[in-house]
Each structure stands twice: as structure tokens, then as C-alpha cells.
Amino acid sequence: MWQLLAAACWILLLGPLYGCNGKGSNTNPEAKMNISQIISYWGYPCEEYDVVTKDGYVLGIYRIPHGRRCSKTAAPKPVVYLQHGLYSSASIWICNPPSNSLAFLLADICYDVWLGNSRGNTWSRKHLKLSPKSSEYCAFSFDEMGKYDLPATIDFIVEKTGQERLFYVGHSQGTTIAFIAFSTNPELAKRIKIFFALAPITTVKYTRSPLKSLTSLSRQEIKALFGDKLLYHPSFSTFFATKVCNKKLFHRICSNVLFAFTGFDPRNLNVSRLDIYLSQSTSGTSIQNMLHWAQAVKSGQFQAFDWGSPEQNMKHFYQVIPPLYNVSKMDIPTAVWSGGQDRVADIKDTENLLPQIVNLIYYKHIPYYNHVDFYLGLDAPQEIYQDLITLMEEGFQN
Description:
Largest sheet: 9 strands, mixed
Oligomer: single chain
Order of helices and strands: HHEEEHEEHEHHEHEHHHEHHEHEHH
Helix content: 25-40%
Radius of gyration: 20 Å
Number of helices: 15
Number of strands: 11
Structural class: alpha/beta
Distance between the termini: 47 Å
């Protein structure tokens, strides 16, 4: 990971020498847009809402109520909720043109599409009482996302649409928090028709991501390096994406930086949109959430966050050891897609997960897919979205 950061610094230093501020650059307009602007840019209607969780966090969510050629009748439409992964945001579902972005494809078949944001990212950085700059605000991990964020968001969507049940699509950590929520909250699980899990993660025992290097550091060392609040550098991400990676000269090295974290698959990425991918896909999270993932790598278990002492664990869980999450308690119809070049959600971890899913209705392994191909891949509509939509069409009739 540190080598990649060093490479990025060298790119920034050498960029001006190779014309980074002159010809040869082509910044896509969406690279500097927010989520609602991107949706409107492609001609879709967009609605924005704030959802308040039981513990006071304010989440920004987005709705595409219908496609560009859909009638605005009052007839019930299938409702779909899309949830992003670690360190990203709802923008991952709209990073490509309409023919290649899941949110737009679903809207164009007249589905009611909702895009969620986890606490602490760019679009969900508010609280009723706490300052986002405070340690108290940042004391969360994917535990709280599953316990508070998903129930609040899904309840809001149900109330707003009048539809009692909806389809859930999650990527990476978006599947993690769903496995937590749906296995521990049976009433919430009843609201889900089908759970679509793209690059699912419960354990990360076999992950090959450079982020694994964090496990060699103690909690104190990680906090000394990054602080104890939010891990987020928007100005650097935007500058790196729009001033460096939009140059053809740096397309290969910027792609390699992305692939080093997610897995290698250069032929399935539209490199002309690298500035959009890099500027839109980094939206922040808490240091505590990163510590939780480091804990998961070390333990190899799907377990709640260890607060560091028996006393603190007793305060949060009424037991001295953080509880394990039991995926087998979830009986929602579940469809799964995995990738053979995925450095984050390694196939060995996925193979250990599959037997725990008691109502697995579909599984597809794509040997050449990396971790971001599930939402950025050029052939994602053919490899994933066609079957996903077919399952939704069949599920909506039941």
C-alpha cells in the first residue's frame, strides 16, 4: 500500500513535466459532479432525501423514480435499493453511461431505484447532535451500518413508496452490512424479496488486498498514522483524478493503482473514464471501520467490533467477547456473483460463505472479474445485470 502512495506522489511531481496542465488531457464532466448532478446530466429525474437513524446519524439517499421513457402512472413499480461498499458511495452505480450503469438500466425498465450511502461518507456526514469532526461521531464501523443504517433507510423507502417489500443489491461491504442486518433483524428481512450479493464479504481471511498490510500495525500505530476520526481526503482524490489520471500518459499507471487494490482486469475497464472512477469512488469512512476490517483479517471470523477490553465489550454487547454473526439465520432468497481476480473478496472466503446461505437461488463465478468489475466492468450488463433483472422480473410477480 505504501508503495502505491509513493507512486501517486511521483505522478503528481512529474505530471507538470509531461504536460499535465496542457494538451492531451480530457476531463469528463461527471468527475466534478455530485450524485444528483450526474443523474440529471443523463436526463433522469432525481430526488434527494435525508434519513435519520435511531442513533442520530443523517444519511443522504437518492432516488431515480423512473426512467427517461417510462410513464408516470400510479401503478406499483418494483423498488430496488442499491448499497455501495467500503470507502465508496452511491455514485458507483452511475459511474458509467446509462447503457452500462445498473441504476440507469433499472430505471429504464421503469423500476423505482434508490441509492444508499453509509454513515461517514461524503453524502452522509451529518448528525443531529454530534460534529462529524468529533471522535464520538467517528466511533462506528460496519456493525452500526447493519444495525442502524439499513433498517432506517429501508423503512424510509417502504414508507415513501408504499411498497412493503423491495429488492436489495449490495456490493462488497454493502453485502456485509446486509448479512448482519438480515440475520439479526427478522422483521427487516421480511421486507426483502431477493438479496443480490455482488462480491460478497463476510470473512476476509484470504484477502489479497494491500489493505491487508494494516494488520501488521497495532491500533495505536494506525491511529498515530491516520488519527481516530474519518479517513477521507477529497481534495487529493479529486486532484489526482482530474489533473493526473485524465491524461493518456498516466492511464496505465492510474489503472494499475486501481487494480493493485481490487484485482487485475485491464480489458474490462473504460480507461477514458478513469477520472470519474477515481474521483467518485473514494468517499471516506471511519478509522474505526478500518480497524474492524483489520480485526476481521486477523481473526478470520465474521464478528462484531472488539472495543478493546472486556469492560467495553460488556458495555456494548453484554458479553466480554464480541459476538459472531450467523449468516445461516438469514433465509432471504439470495443470488451471488463472485470474481476469480478479486483481491478483496477472495474466492476462498466466498466458498466458505456459500454453504451458510440457506436460501441460495443463484450463483455465478466469473473467473476474470476483479472487485470493481461488478459495477464498472464493460461487460457487467451481459455477465451480471441481465440475469439479475430476470430474477427481479420473476420475483416481482411472486
